[in-house]
Amino acid sequence: MTHYTELIKTIKDRREMLQVTQETLAELSGVGLRTLKQFESGKGNPTLLTLQRITDVLGMEVSLKLKNISGSK
Fold first, then answer.
1. What is the number of H-type helices and E-type strands within the chain?
2. What gap in Å lies between CA 51 and CA 55, rounded to an integer?
3. Which domain holds residue 47?
């Protein structure tokens, strides 16, 4: 499973656990329903801001971390 598909699954699982419909999540996050549906189906390419809006409504946060590059000090 790629990182992107893991991200999609995590967000979709959280939405379903909270019993929030795609329509409600789109409305609360200010993200278009079509954008949300494309993202959850793995066909979309949301911006970081879009992901932040979606995850914020679900009580989650997006964070980035640097990879550990072998050979670096």
1. 4, 0
2. 6
3. 3-57
